[in-house]
């Protein structure tokens, strides 16, 4: 796999630039190339390892669970709302971004680590007339024909509850959102208006914050987080 030079790594990774020439790259997978490789997170963010050799040992010992799956590849990317657990030491984290788009982690409880907030990319009808829900992470599952693209779901990620839908937050005016990109990253509010573009440009939306102030951003940056209040409070996130 192509290595990434530390000097050219995304700012969101928050790594030392001159420590060495190269750093672990992000593999193709659930997120794009700007996602933080889990090997970098383990070493440079959490200090669970001193070097790549120790990172690989932790992963190969099957000590890391990402969104309900055991991870053994240090190149797998992690991004906003991913859930990472270390069952042996009973530590659990949700990945977030700050107002500058930089990755950080928020420690959560074991119970909170059993569910994940995900975004619907699309849905398709498959053999037998069943509805397949396709998520922006690349995962998919058979579900109810009630959600649409851009909706958010809270799903189980462990055991028999895996992919069981526990909450559904439609992409609709009046519902709660958080912004996960651009100059308004991590701001929350109500979706006040959807501005459809008559061109190839992305649709824009108007968000109204708790103070009644309004701002615009592009549709792709919007993540639904509730109907009347933020469901992120379930994970102890003050947003």
Automatic annotation (TrEMBL):
Residues 4-31 form the Small ribosomal subunit protein eS4 N-terminal domain. GO terms for cellular component: cytosolic small ribosomal subunit. Pfam families: Ribosomal_S4e, RS4NT. Keywords: Ribonucleoprotein, Ribosomal protein, RNA-binding, rRNA-binding. The keyword Ligase does not apply. Residues 90-158 form the Small ribosomal subunit protein eS4 central region domain. NCBIfam families: PRK04313.1 (NF003312). This is Small ribosomal subunit protein eS4. It comes from Methanocorpusculum parvum.
């Amino acid at each position: 796999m192509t290595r990434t030079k530390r000097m050219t790594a995304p700012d969101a990774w928050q790594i030392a630039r001159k420590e060495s020439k190269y750093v672990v790259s992000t593999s193709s997978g659930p997120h794009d190339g700007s996602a933080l490789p889990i090997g970098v997170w383990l070493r440079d963010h959490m200090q669970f390892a001193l070097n790549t050799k120790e990172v690989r040992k932790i992963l190969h010992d099957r000590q890391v669970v990402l969104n309900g799956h055991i991870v053994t590849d240090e190149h797998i990317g992690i991004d906003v709302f991913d859930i990472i657990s270390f069952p042996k030491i009973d530590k659990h984290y949700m990945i977030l971004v700050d107002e500058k788009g930089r990755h950080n982690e928020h420690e959560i409880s074991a119970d909170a680590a059993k569910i994940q907030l995900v975004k619907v990319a699309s849905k398709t009808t498959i053999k037998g007339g069943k509805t397949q829900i396709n998520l922006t992470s690349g995962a998919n599952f058979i579900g109810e024909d009630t959600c649409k693209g851009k909706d958010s779901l809270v799903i189980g990620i462990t055991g028999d509850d895996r992919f069981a839908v526990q909450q559904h937050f439609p992409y609709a005016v009046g519902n709660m959102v958080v912004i996960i990109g651009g100059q308004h990253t991590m701001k929350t509010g109500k979706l006040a208006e959807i501005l459809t573009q008559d061109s190839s440009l992305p649709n824009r939306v108007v968000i109204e914050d708790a103070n009644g102030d309004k701002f615009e951003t592009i549709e792709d940056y919007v993540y639904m987080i509730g109907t009347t209040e933020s469901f992120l409070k379930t994970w102890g996130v003050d947003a």
